[in-house]
Amino acid sequence: MSRLLQRLLAGPSAYKKVTRIHSVPSRSIIDHSYSTHFMDFKRSSIPSNMKKLVATKLSPNFKEAVSLQTSPVPTPGDSDLLIRNRYVGINASDINYSAGRYDPSVTPPFDVGFEAVGEVVGLGLSASSRFTVGDTVAYMKAGAFAEFTVIPAKIAVPVPSARPEILSLLVSGATAHIALRRLGELKKGDTVLVTAAAGGTGQFAVQFAKMAGCHVVGTCSSDEKAGFLKTIGCDRPINYKTEDLAATLRREYPQGVDVVYESVGGSVFDIALNNLASRGRLIVIGFISGYQSASGLQPVRGTTIPAKLLQKSASVRGFFLPHFLSDYGESLQVMLELLNTGKLVCEVDNGERDEVGHFVGLESIFRAVEFMYAGKNLGKLVVELEPKNSSKL
């Protein structure tokens, strides 16, 4: 029975407006006419099957853990949207997810990928109060590495167009924005060290620290990346392939750094900790150097951490985005406004510098992950699933 009839039958007033309710045949809300109206994008048919990436075993080796499979295109429920994904974002933590490190209760097979932007091609009746077929939305939800994904309408973020730059904000940008605001306690004049500063999230940490009036130091692995960092406001890029990071920090910042935005782990974490200023704050947003190992970790000099923190009244603070979702909506709106007004750079890497070429299609996600772990990406890694000139549209 439809929700409309349920409301009409809810009280005596309903009988004053509707007569012979008992003669209305009962039927499912989702019938042929409904699906034709709500699941047809620009008069193109939605295929019955699609491709997606599925983790079939737990392993930090993404290519070993994940396989490309064919499955039926899902049907949206009453409050859901069916999205034809245009671009998907690659994150360092994709291999943590395929290794089962985030939720030990999840067992293979399970869908992978965290973020995408695309068009609404189908939706449920309740969802149609806010969205319509043809709308463009971005979202953050497990299972994004697929040609089509069903998502709750409540998590969809309306965007003007399916731009890959939007993807850089969903996880990478939000992590930097919220972590620095909530845990960094930035003050004008602070010295901020950003590790992997030319990466997907590092680029935003540099810019948000500069917006707060800080002096920014950023580590990177090439002169090309150092040049990029200068263009987004980094005061002192350090190419650790040609400069000794520890020696440079000791020499140029003898009083230490006030805030560290740290995503590398291992020896870089140790160097950052050793160079904290009095009452310094070290924010751990990841430790990519260890993700491909069996444990997911790289060794650090843990036995000395308590003494070092005590001596400087310093702190180490962990940040995991799902624990700060109450800040997410506001943060995303702020970043979208900065992007739309030209005040925020969202550098996207689509594989144009890869020897094989651009990352296009679900199959190229494997290559994009390898590209990231080789330290070759400049900015946010994005894979295009369906070119804009595709005949499907």
Unreliably modeled segments: 1-37
User: What is the CA-atom radius of gyration, in angstroms?
Assistant: 24 Å
Major β-sheet profile:
7 strands, mixed
Proportion of residues in extended strands: 15-25%
Please state the structural category: alpha/beta
Mean pLDDT: 89
Please give the oligomerization state of what you see.
single chain
Distance between the termini: 35 Å
What is the count of helical runs?
A: 13
Total E-strand runs: 16
Outline: globular
Percent of residues in helices:
25-40%
State the order of secondary-structure elements, H for helix, E for strand.
HHHEHEEHEEEEEHEHEHEHEHEHEHEHE
Description:
- By secondary structure, this protein is an alpha/beta fold.
- Helices cover about 30% and strands about 20% of the residues.
- It contains 13 helices and 16 strands.
- The strands form 3 sheets. Strands 3, 5, 6, 7, 8, 15 and 16 form a 7-stranded mixed sheet that branches. A 6-stranded parallel sheet has the order 11-10-9-12-13-14, with helices on both faces. A 3-stranded antiparallel sheet has the order 2-1-4.
- Strand 9 (about 190-195), helix 7 (about 200-210) and strand 10 form a beta-alpha-beta unit.
- The longest helix is centred in the middle third of the chain and has 21 residues, at about 165-185.
- The chain is globular and about 65 Å long.
- The protein starts with a helix and ends in a 9-residue tail after the last strand.
- The model is unreliable at about 1-35 (pLDDT under 50).
